[in-house]
Input
Amino acid sequence: MKILTLNCGSSSAKYMVYDWDKKEILCKGIVERVTIGDSFCVHEVTGRDAVKIEHDCPTHKEAVHLILDLLVSPEHGVLKSVKEIDAVGHRVVHGGEKFAKSVIITDEVLNTFKELQDLAPLHNPPNILGIEAARSLLPDVPHMAVMDTAFHQTMQPPQYIYALPYEWYEKYRIRRYGFHGTSHLYVSRRAAVLLGKDPSEVNLITLHVGNGVSFTAVKKGVSFDTSMGFTPLEGLVMGTRAGDHDAAIGLYVMQREGLSPKEMDSILNKKSGLLGITGKYTDRRDVLEAMEKGDERAKLAFEIECYRIKKYIGAYAAALGGVDAIVWTAGVGEMAADIRARAMEGLEFMGIKFDPEKNQLARSRNAEFDISAPDSKVKIFVIPTDEELVFVEDVVALLENRYDVYTNFKYSFQDPSYRNKMRDAEFQKQLQKKPEMAKAVAKVPGQ
Output
């Protein structure tokens, strides 16, 4: 059984083909600059070096078409025909209250996503375009949707209801929804494995730090609270999103500068965050480089982000009443040792103490690391996320009519013996160049 996963963003389309029977990734890649010109695809087949293919993709339909062509290409392909694809799993950022788990996409389901698209204006529209493109090109296979919000449907009213007129919730379903659910699900389950415990026995703070940032307080294995809210705008400092701030600021500036709601929405989502502070940068690598060269606003952006992270760790530790582990994930969480160090500095009184050497060594998207100090009461893990594997498992379970909400469902990666063969192979290459990285690798208890 071969499963294709698609994750269509506003200007990109990530994909993976997974052989379920062999439990192997056949290939993965990303089409960049979709809709904006000079499009290209970075395509990686397991066991081979990645290749870059330039191909114009004015819409997501061309991007999906390019992906399908690559999958059956004599030179770069992994399939003899697209007919080998048994199902397609799609990422959908916002499922509202209507979806507590992944679903088979029907016309009715797709229409519901369209009704919800204003709740995630940066993500749901391209998600929908990707679904429509794939369904038109692969009309004879089932398509499934995996919602970012589904993992957080275990939150209770005290955590998800805002102190706003209650009728807004009744009329418009305005509440906290949370996002990056598949990422938080994956790393929380892997953290339980590394702790040698059942997920229902652990309290975690999972830190998904990428261009978008969200934290989740995981209590006894389920989402108890999360930082993103009604939309992905709330919470931590992000690449271009403001995160937490006084809501009156937007109203004040709108009045002073004559801005429309749409213009303010664009400023808060696309022109704030790190970009707003620095005036130049959204990528943490650029921020760190500029800071080292003496850029004061880059340094300010760094300090603001790390301080906000520290505040959330403290708040969620209090909400959980005790923490077994802190889990860093996503591009920045997995690679930016300086941000991790600054954010956790001074948390020793909470039992959170990291090993500086291990923290610096833990820079790979292909291995799980334990960067805790020997005397740290709270474990600190760096776990590369794997949202695509969650997609695959949900899709297969739906196909086999054995799927359920995540609180009743056990994933293959919860098994202590689970290994990602593609990542293992890549990490072995890294170890050849930097063998000292092995010092920081996390160990599964009993293995």
